[in-house]
Design a protein that fits this description.
- There is one protein chain.
- The protein is of the alpha+beta class and 182 residues long.
- It is built from 7 helices and 8 strands.
- The strands form 2 sheets. It has a 6-stranded mixed sheet. Strands 2-8 form a two-stranded antiparallel ribbon.
- Helix 4 packs across helix 5.
- Bound molecules: 1-O-phosphono-alpha-D-glucopyranose (G1P).
- The site of 1-O-phosphono-alpha-D-glucopyranose has 15 residues, from strand 6 and helix 5.
Length: 182
């Protein structure tokens, strides 16, 4: 019987379907305002021949709910930064930065070999973050800091703001919903 062992394990299950090509991972509980970030990440990954992850700057109190990256150098004008390492759900005072992994990844096919080598980490799960940390050691690895809106629907507050914002901007029910809210 196969049972879930974490995000890294889940991504590893797609190995046969993906084959030997770069691929994107989109975590559906992270809702992004549009697809521009993913498209920029794909360009960065292709240009470097490596991998690229979506990042967002958050308040220090939020970092321990996420994967957090350690960067090399500064974030450039396009929001691109080199990534040295990363850690899953660190304590606030052990986090290497305030840049978290949002649920968007463009990964080289080598990610699957790295996933195979990962042992259970945070929460006893096979963490994708731990596999990517190995990948960042051996190959080009960049982050792209997002400027677009993002909702983490895995929290009650994030879910509520997603529903309200998306409904307000919806062509069909936006006006009616705004009037009701007011
Ligand atoms: C997962 C990843 C984490 C990432 C987060 C984004 O965590 O493991 O690195 O920052 O998604 O939402 P989870 O939401 O499964 O706790």
């Amino acid at each position: 019987l196969d049972v879930p062992h974490g995000l890294g394990h889940a991504v590893g299950c797609a190995r046969e379907a993906v084959g030997d090509a770069p691929f994107a991972v989109l975590l559906p509980d992270d809702i992004m305002g549009d697809s521009s970030l993913l498209s920029q990440m794909a360009d960065v990954a292709e240009a470097s021949g490596g991998s690229a992850v979506g990042l967002k700057r958050v308040a220090p109190s939020e970092v321990s709910s996420y994967g957090v990256v350690e960067t090399i150098g500064d974030v450039d004008a396009d929001g691109v930064v080199r990534v040295r390492s990363m850690v899953e759900k660190p304590a606030m005072d052990e986090a290497p930065s305030d840049l978290i992994l949002i649920g968007r990844y463009v990964l080289a096919a080598d990610a699957f070999e790295a996933i195979d080598r990962v042992t259970p980490g945070a929460n006893g799960e096979i963490q994708l973050t731990d596999a990517l940390k190995m990948l960042a050691n051996d190959a080009p690895f960049h982050g792209v800091v997002s400027k677009i809106s993002r909702y983490d629907t895995g929290t009650p507050f994030g879910w509520l703001t997603a529903v309200v914002d998306l409904a307000l901007n919806d062509d069909q029910i936006g006006a009616q919903f705004r009037a009701w809210l007011q």
